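Need DNA-binding PadR family transcriptional regulator's 3D structure for a figure. Predict it.
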Amino acid sequence: MALEHAILVSLLEQPGSGYELARRFERSIGRFWTATHQQIYRVLKRMESDGLVVAEEIGQDGRPDKRSFSATGPGKDVLAEWLRAPVQPEAVRHELAVKIRGAAFTDDAGRAALIGEVERYRAEHEALLLTYINGEKRDFLDLGGLDAGQQLQHVVLRGGIAYERMLLDWLDDVLRTLRAL
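Structure prediction for DNA-binding PadR family transcriptional regulator:
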């Protein structure tokens, strides 16, 4: 997937400035597709010159005008073509998993340090799960009244919740195993 596709999806959900897009990436999209502010602005500029997005100048009192981007017809066509293309399973790079395998080649102090790291990592993911669950409670109370876009956002969120629960279960297993060594 290219960053262009993630930007098009976000802009079709809601037009916005480069700053607003970057904030959306930090809050939601960034959990499965990361991008820096600089990357987003650079890609938006290219997409605008390619005719995939259009910018509207919006005046702001006491601040510089902002540019609000939205997807164009050709941008929607590019997204539709991409949506029809097959998806290949992606390779997962998981530094912690490599460290866990490496624990076989360290001493008790090294394993103790790794236990501390796994506990820290677990706490971060437990907090993220709570964030997802709170977001679900906040944004998806009335499941019967969701439009197609909201239903798809919800199914992605449910996937994130399921992933975090699975990860926490695995980390608990890792901690039990490390502590038993």
